[in-house]
Amino acid sequence: MVNAIAKELVLRKSEADDAVETIYFGGGTPSVLSNDEIERLIQTVYDNYKVIDHPEITLEANPDDLVSSRAPACRTGRGSRDLFSEYKNAGINRLSIGIQSFFDEDLKLMNRAHDATEAEKCIKEATEHFENITIDLIYGIPGMDNERWKANIQKALDFGLPHISSYALTVEPRTALKKFIEKGVVPDVDDEQAQEQFHILVDMLEEQGFINYEISNFGKPGFFSKNNTAYWLGKKYLGVGPSAHSFDGKHRSWNIRNNPTYIKKITKGELPSEIETLSKTDRYNEYVMTGLRTIWCVDLDRIASEFGSNYVEYLSQQATKFLEQGLLVLEDGKLLTTKKGKFLADGIASDLFMINLK
User: What DSSP character marks residue 134?
Assistant: First the structure.
């Protein structure tokens, strides 16, 4: 797999016109890679692409992959306690850790492999080696009251983390949690409570100097995720590996999911991907969705120049009811969600989407 990913990077180097600003090891569990493998992939990027000075290089991992009591000693050959140092030496300068919760009852409900003790131990060890760390926290968990949610946020704040990503719990089909809810073993997700906990999150983090630059992302100044920001600003990105998605501004492509087929095609020098050309309306809809989710808003002048005055007229008409309800506000030609409307941004955006025009 590593050979195939390295080869795909070489095969696709002509697709990248701009210098690489961020390298992100995500999806699945990239922490299973050895440090030599991580170094090889990073070096392959440097050998084949223009790269800015000091790019953001992030590795996603779960606490059970990182804590010294669980991380495999064979990874470095010198004992598992060297893991964080080895990541730094390999070129990683940012960690994204899937904490989800600091409470065992929540972690058990979500069927997580780590426990609360490992979650805290992981962050303690990580902060001794890395300054740029983000964690994931989940709200709207059945049985988690507001006080426990506040305690979750406070634990994250106590570690001095500069970035937090937080999401409402979604119950996926064919999961243990879905079956428990259907059988009445645990209560269903309460949307009103999830919304209330989102507002608690915003208030607590903003009070501590975090900026809610995207609905699910909170960063201290200087610590916004470059990877996340590039996506929300509609920049081009190149996704490498099975199931990875790419975007060049007008086309979206995605690799096949099947690992053996992916490796076989790459070995033959073939790109195992499908490509979709986005219409003007598709691109307008994506801009509205991403704009409403971020502090960068939806710029009506940009819509006029890129899509045409008919799109501005349509957007203004569709936005009227949300402006009257206090969910949106129009300031200096920019449309943005209010504090009241932020949690509802995706639903509002869907009502602003253009359906028929091309």
Answer: E
